[in-house]
Amino acid sequence: MTWVGLIVRNLLRRPARTSFTAAGVALGVGLIVALLSVTAGAKKTADQLIHVGHADFGLFQAGASDLTLSRLPGSIARSVAREPGVAATGRIYLYVTNAGLVFGFARGEFPAQRLVITQGGRWTDDEALVGDSRARSKHLRPGVTLSIGRRHFRVGGIFHTGDPFEDGGIVLPLGVVQRLAGRPGDVTTISVAVSLGARPRDVAHRLEHDFPGTTAVTEPGQVVKIDTSSRVIISTGWIISLLALIVGGIAVTNTMAMSVFERIREIGILRAVGWRTSKIAALIVCEALGICLLALAVGLALGYAAAQVFSDHAAAGPLLQPDFTGGVFAWGLAFALGVGVLGAAYPTWRAIRLTPVEALRHE
Fold it and tell me: Is the pTM of this model over 0.70?
């Protein structure tokens, strides 16, 4: 019998026990994959949000629980524009609706001026511009009507920016979006384009100093420091990961310990016919890893499904699209292998301590 065949045969001796153990580990893998993919998606969204309109960075309200809940008085944009190193500013209101993401841009400011109109081009208070990727997915074209909240807007044109975040949204005049959201005069962020030769970080630090209560975000990694929602997601993810690792390790330990106890005579025979302790140890570890690799496959599927369900039903679903990067799946693999090694430690130690004589005497 081959080595793999021997491992499979041993795992199938108690199929119910093996299945339940794998299911427990799979839940842990699924939780990790779901949480990390949502976290990665939130970071990606933050990166796209702070660079809307091809801005160098965005100015947000300090201490906001979520970047999209940032509220700044739009009137400070003029003061920001007069700061050294600032070439232009753009007031933006991001509004999450049943129709998707709606961007409120002010006519004449650079976020609106950088929209490349590919079809149509009209833009009045009763007309909307739609990103080309959203137009394709929703089969929209100039002239059709959109329902946003309680109002209806005619599609005046289709635009392209090259930014998937913007190209998947809808653009309305800033004042219209402020009225829809019930926040006249407020903006979500002030996008900043720096002057040629100026360093964005230096300009950002100056703005934070000159405008207390604001935070300039120049890169997505900074979002975690000011966005309490992101911090909660990440902290919760690590805590759940640790608990899942402990619980999964205990489950695998129990399963493998029972397997070793039931096969003491078999282990004694293997030792008697010349198997070294290292080979016995490798067999136990490989069996534990076999359970965890089975759990990995199931867990990845569960994590993918859970993240999609969370995104579809979350209030800010369009902003929390999970991002299944290679790193996310690598963490799932690392977790599964870690549980396997941790769970095999005690059963392996117990198995290699058995002497052939002692094992053969076991009833």
Answer: no
Report d(CA 296, CA 163) in Å as an integer: 34
As a whole number of angstroms, the distance between CA 179 and CA 223 comes to: 28
Domain positions in the chain are: 3-45+230-361, 57-217
| Three-point CA angle 170, 217, 241, nearest 5° | 90
Nearest C-alpha neighbor of 104 from the set 145, 76, 154, 68: 68
Which tokens go with 114?
Answer: 């950088």
Q: What are the two backbone dihedrals, phi and then psi, of residue 287, each rounded to the nearest 5 degrees?
A: -65, -40
Task: Give Cα separations from 278 to 7, 274, 313, 343 (angstroms).
Answer: 16, 11, 51, 17
Matching residue, tokens 């599609």: 155
If one counts every other C-beta atom within 10 angstroms of the C-beta of residue 83, the result is 15
Tokens of 167: 């190209």
**pLDDT one-digit tens code per residue, 277-295:** 888 888 888 888 888 888 8
What's the rounded Cα separation, in Å, for the pair 189 and 67? 9
Residues in the chain: 363
Over residues 247-276, the pLDDT tens digits come to: 877 888 888 888 877 777 777 777 777 788
Instruction: Find, among 297, 289, 288, 294, the residue nearest to 254 by Cα.
Output: 288
